[in-house]
Structures are given as C-alpha cells and as structure tokens.
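Entry for the shared binder. Reason: the reviewer on the internal report wants the predicted structure included alongside the sequence.
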Amino acid sequence: MKLVILTGMSGAGKSTALKMMEDIGFYCVDNLPIPLIEKFVELSETSKDELQKFAIGVDIRSGNSLSELHAVLNRLTEGGKSSEILFLDAEDAVLVKRYKETRRSHPLSGGERVEAGIQKERSRLNFLRRRADYIIDTSRMLTRELWAELDKIFVKQQDYKNLFITVLSFGFKYGIPVDSDLVFDVRFLPNPFYVEGLRQKSGNDKEIQDYVLQFKEAHVFLAKLADMVNFLIPNYIIEGKNQLVIGIGCTGGKHRSVTLANELYRQLASCKEYGLKIEHRDIDKDVLRN
C-alpha cells in the first residue's frame, strides 16, 4: 500500500490538495486522530477492498497529539510500512492575505493577530517540514498548477526536487516585485516603445519579438542568463529552496522584459525536475492607464 501524510500550513491549500488526491485515486481521510493512524493502516492492509493508495490529512487541528506523529511514523517504518509526507507551505504575507480575504481567524491566534498564530503553527509543524519528502510552496500557484505538481509526483512519479520557478516580467516604473529572488534589468536594449507601429504591441507579439531579438546583445544576455540559472538551480535544490522567482524588468514591463522572459521560460521548459510558470505582471498597465 502507499500512504501519504498530507500536512502543512493552514491556508496553504491542504483541503484543495486532498480533493485532488482523491481525484487521482487516493482514499482520503482528513484530520484523522493521530493515535488512530496505526490502526487505520492495519485495517487498510487487511481490507478486502482493492484500494491501495491512502492519503491522511494532518494539521494543527490535531492539537497536542500532533507531537505523537513523529513516533507513529517511526513505528510504521520499523514495521516495514513506508509512508511519504507532502507538506504544503506559503509565505507568511500570502497566508495573512488569504485569511483576511476569507475573514477567518487563525486557529492558533486566539486574541492575537493572525501573524502570531502563523508563527506558532510554523514552530509546531517544523518537525514535519524537516521530515517531508515533498514540499510545495503555493504562494504563487494557481489551482491548476498545484494539480500539475501533484500529478507529476503521484501519477507520473517523476523525480521531484521541491522547487517551483516563476519567470516574471515587470516594469521598473511600477516597482521591483518584492518577492523576486533574482532581478535582471534589460533596459540596455533598444526600446520598441519609440518605434512607430510597435508601441501598442507587447512582447507576446511576433513583431516585438523580432525587433528585440534582432540585436546580438539580446542573445548574449539570454545565453549568459540561462547558463547562470542552470548553474544555480541544482544548488538551490540542495540548499532546500522551494520557490524561485526570476524577475526580468524593462521600463514599462510590456516589450523587452516580456520577450526575454518568454525566451528564458522556453529554454527552461525542457527540464522536468522542477515546476515552472511564467507571469507578465505589468503587460497591460499602459493599456489601463490610457
């Protein structure tokens, strides 16, 4: 049998992930009391049903018994019963925003602010995060992207490296994205904004791509950038980084940055060892302002 313990921070998407696990063939139980997990595994193995895959949702709602999970998993391992831990996480600022949007209070905040509850929860769940086989940071994920990551791990059974990369184009005049890990300035390239007939187009249009990529400097930049990123990725994975945001900026975030972000995304897309997405934060800003 295959047993997955699905856990993580409140607000990181555990309920959504549990539903997805059910859709891909797991028998799912949410918030099963920790002392009953061993009995559940025993009954599952002796059951005549054809179910072979199980996912148990465990989180801070388990209260004081949560600390017993470490010993429970050790006993299962000693008894020859393997298990995997999937830990969903998100940045503190994202968790706070999600709580405010739903107008819910954090289960550990009591009369304090949501941030206080989040810190308490992190402390209590730290032993599970350190023990986790898979860590997914949902801070910037759409629902379909989370589905793709679960499909990669539990259906396609690909080697999962716990890293999700976002290639993000932006405009410096709208501010540098606060969550960027790496930021690159491509304003050294000629600006299509000043070329007649190109201003209203974007880096998603062939005319802009042809204009930007006609310059040798654009290709040299892309080659050096891709080489550096490909060097950094395995080292970030070893270090335990779960989320990498690569920001590429030009003046307005519409032409040069979009073109080069698309090209970098295309070059990285061939590797299946990490999740990958692309965003164009400011591509429509000028349109909204006019």
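Summary line for the report: Residues 174 and 252 are 7 Å apart (CA to CA).
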